[in-house]
Amino acid sequence: MSRHPAARRTRRPSVNRRDGAHAEASDALVVFGATGDLAFKKIFPALFALHLRGALEVPVVGVALRNWTTEQLREHARKSIESADPAADAKAIDALLALLRYVSGDYAAPATYQALKQALSGHAHPAHYLAIPPELFPVVIRGLGAAGLASGARVIVEKPFGRDLASARELNRVTLAVFPEESIFRIDHFLGKEAIMNILYFRLANSFLEPIWNRNHVASVQITLAEEFGVQTRGAFYETAGCLRDVVQNHMLQIVALLAMEPPGRRDYSAVNAEKLKLVEAIRPAHPDELVRGQYAGYRDEAMVASGSDVETYCALRLHIDTWRWSGVPWFLRSGKFLPTTACEVLVRLDPPPVRLFEDASPAGAGASYLRFRLSPHSAIALAARVKRPGKPYLGDRRELVLADAQDDEEAPYDRLLGDAMAGDPALFAREDAVEASWAVVEPLLAAPPTVVPYAQGSWGPAAADHLVEATGGWHNPG
Known about the structure:
six-stranded parallel β-sheet, alpha/beta, about 20% strand
């Protein structure tokens, strides 16, 4: 089998990418795992949204083990769409369902791929979306290659892409043996969020920020990704992943990269991704002494969770970026389940003025001015500064000026990313080298993790995490 099979000669429609370049659109979409939970909750509603916008008019072939018919898959998809949007137009749903086909079979069986090839007859450039457990990625990728279904095609791979540095390298090796890098789309739905995209835009579209966006004016940076619910039905998955693998290695390091990267020389995906890679490679490998792992009370009683599990449902860590811009500035990452709220926020604390002229102004830490990015559940950007109260005394209060807020017509992450992958636009997807670099950052934590400590449901996690940030004013808790 060749490493980069030659594409067939059938032309795909040309489409515009986010960087202004052109690519050819996929002429079919294959969804492996079409009967699974991810497809029901996210994929079918996303496909419906794409179809409503006229961005999905090609056949959609579902592949799964269940012995279903096409009509059963269509009914399953209808329930998914109606569950996500009870007011969805029935005729519009029917129009999408008419595009659906179904192939039943074992992912390891060559016959499954021959049946898929028959279902794709006349379509030479499909996009294969792997909404399946990670251990099946190599099986399906090799199956597509052996059946001749990779030539001229794209593959969309869900996270986690590996479970450590060694497995990520092996998965990259397997995938690159079948698909060229430009045809591999490693999907991280966080990168499709409007608020995440706005971090880069806000940084680089406003000249007032650049002079202070460095170690001379920034005291510390915090990123909190909190969830007020537990593992729910995902106990078996969480036992194999934990918080570090689930959100820190991917979602949170992507946010760090967008906040800390150097401005690219031009606006295209390759230049942006090159700067993101340089930044991630400059993050010092995390040290276990700067990590706190927690586990919410009752986790070991969840379904499919080991009675003596040491898996973390919470982690807080301190990172260091060894670049000229950020040397000496601590970065704090915190995420966990069963916290008081569901939200994701970034807090950039600024250094205080060099001379403390007013007694009521806190010199640093919790009283300092800051820039706040609210990434979810709604987006906002706010600047906090001190303003004087009316009257003769020089007394003031810290107040926030909200600079931006969410829009009602925001495109949902899976809508955006699936559409981009089918259009051949790689701007919002992770590259092979970036994935491996992010695993290298957390590798020491996976190799020698500290023991988990319990924390109460509804709290902000273990008290030990407070010690990480006590010198910088404590944690900022999203409201």
